[in-house]
Amino acid sequence: MQFKNITYSIPWNLFLITLGSIIFSIGLKAIVIPNGMITGGFSGAGILIYYYSGIFTPGIWYLLLNIPIFILGWIFVSKRFLLYSLYGAVIITIAIDLIQFEIALKDLMLATIAGGAVLGAGAGIVFRSLGSVGGNDIIAIILNQKFGIRIGTYNFCFNLILFLCSFGSLNTELILYSMTMSYITSQVIEYCITMFNQRKTIFIVSDKPKEIAAQILTNLKRGATFIKGEGTYTGRPKDIILTVVNTFQIKRVEEIVFTIDPDAFLITENTFNVLGKGFSQRKVY
Length: 285
What we know:
- By secondary structure, the protein is an alpha+beta fold.
- Helices cover 61% and strands 10% of the residues.
- The protein has eleven helices and four strands.
- Strand 2 (225-230) and strand 3 (237-245) form a beta hairpin.
- Helix 8 runs antiparallel to helix 9 (172-194).
- The model has no long low-confidence stretch (mean pLDDT 82).
């Protein structure tokens, strides 16, 4: 309960949004723009308008493009989400205009990798909050909340369409580098979102399920569920153990299982998000 209170506290969310926005702005102003590349989403659209018009700044264009999107956030998400997102958009606008240094990278591929990593880390940190930095992020969160579409996947698909529309008007190589950077960004965003929620789902088939389940409960403080099964060869009913643990507990589970039953069968699967008591709580924007 205490962790949940921190997650929903105003200072914690403002800290995440501020930190993520500044990191994102550094990637944009110090890496992407000096190399003539573009990002995806509304920040990329703002850069394109800046390249073509030469007026205002990318930060101001980003804020102007966000105005209609904030209305969607108000209607489909919540007032709290809108206010946090407005704060994030303002921080990015200010940070982009204040950052005057450049991270010198002569190799465009290195700039692509570095840019994608920094942009993804900044956006991912913001997504850990109850807000966003506006623009495409608001649409991504609406689709994630309503239809379960992964945020990184949506961002990459949107950006792919944006970049395809840029062919013929921008340097082809820079567009391809920008597309690569967008993919790296989407992967880093997904990692930042799930890195504290990753768990391992373990299925255990054994003739001693009750002893194993009791040891998991006692030694690891993790619950387990019996799933009724039947051996195809013997035809005998079996209690299959289902449990979810973190990555540091896998070896301890293996030790418990094979110490009790050397002939047991253990299956481990990646689980990217677990919601419920003892794990992460559902985030309500």
